[in-house]
Amino acid sequence: ALGTPAAVLAGIAQAARNGVLIKGGEYLESLGSITALALDKTGTLTVGEPEATDLVPADGVSEEILLLHAASVEQRSQHPLARAVVRAAERRAMVLRDVGDLTAVMSRGVRATVDGAVVEVGRALLFEDAGVKVPSAIQAAVEQLEAKGRSTMIVRRIGHTPEFLGVLGMADQPRENAG
Question: N or C: which end of the chain has fewer CB within 10 A?
Answer without folding.
Answer: N
